[in-house]
Design goal:
- There is one protein chain.
- By secondary structure, the chain is mostly beta strands.
- It has 3 domains: 4-62, SH3 type barrels, CATH 2.30.30; 65-124, OB fold (Dihydrolipoamide Acetyltransferase, E2P), CATH 2.40.50; 128-184, Nucleic acid-binding proteins (OB fold (Dihydrolipoamide Acetyltransferase, E2P)), CATH 2.40.50.140.
- It has strands spanning 12-15, 18-28, 36-43, 49-55, 61-62, 65-76, 79-83, 90-93, 110-116, 119-124, 128-135, 149-154, 159-163, 171-175, 181-184.
- The strands form 3 sheets. A 5-stranded antiparallel beta sheet has the order 4-3-2-1-5, with no helix packed on it. The chain has a 5-stranded antiparallel beta sheet with strand order 8-7-6-9-10, with no helix packed on it. The chain has a 5-stranded antiparallel beta sheet with strand order 13-12-11-14-15, with no helix packed on it.
- β3 and β4 (49-55) form a beta hairpin.
- The chain is elongated.
Length: 185
């Protein structure tokens, strides 16, 4: 057990029996009263956020975390399979953990996986990913006004607005924050 003053942004604590990551932390004092720490936590199991106040007399339990770089292999009825490229161990992550992220996940690409107490919790996407264009209509001759774009479907099903010169089969960089075209890979 640790003191609430040791809480830092990004650390994982045990709150109400489940792992929560610290999104925000503020240490406050009020006149003659004892200070307290106000934190915003995100439940790593459900994704919900909550605000909690800890007095200086409270105890906090920090959880053991580890980031591993694993290669995304394939999807089946069990879930998303990731492989440790050093030990060749197969780690399965359930569909609910990657529901919002799967449009950026291409097979054969490495991703950071957060483990809490040796259990995979979340997939952490990089700032950009490289995806293959599988469907893109041809640009119409004469469409040369500045910054004309067309929709392109990626190998993961994600649709991105791209410049007219992008063709099927090309690999492009896509922002994971805005789902926008960043350039050719």
């Amino acid at each position: 057990m640790a003191s609430p003053t040791e809480i830092r942004k990004g650390r994982v604590i045990n709150y109400n029996g489940s792992p929560h990551t610290v999104l925000e932390m503020l240490h406050r004092t009020q006149g003659r009263q004892a200070g307290f720490v106000q934190v915003t936590l995100r439940n790593l199991d459900t994704g919900s956020t909550t605000n909690v106040k800890y007095r200086s007399t409270d105890n906090v339990e920090f959880m053991h975390t580890e980031n591993q770089r694993l290669e995304f292999s394939y999807i089946d009825q069990e879930g998303y399979h990731f492989m440790n490229t050093e030990t060749f161990d197969d780690i399965i992550i359930q569909d609910k953990m990657v529901a919002d992220l799967k449009k950026f996940m291409a097979e054969g690409t490495e991703y950071e996986i957060l483990f809490v107490d040796d259990r995979p919790i979340t997939v952490q996407l990089p700032v950009s990913v490289e995806l293959k264009v599988v469907e893109s209509p041809e640009g119409i001759k004469g469409d040369t006004a500045s910054n004309v774009q067309k929709p392109a479907t990626m190998e993961t099903g994600l649709v991105v607005q791209v410049p007219l010169f992008i063709k099927e089969g090309e690999i492009i960089k896509v922002s994971t924050e805005s789902s926008s075209y960043l350039g050719r890979a």
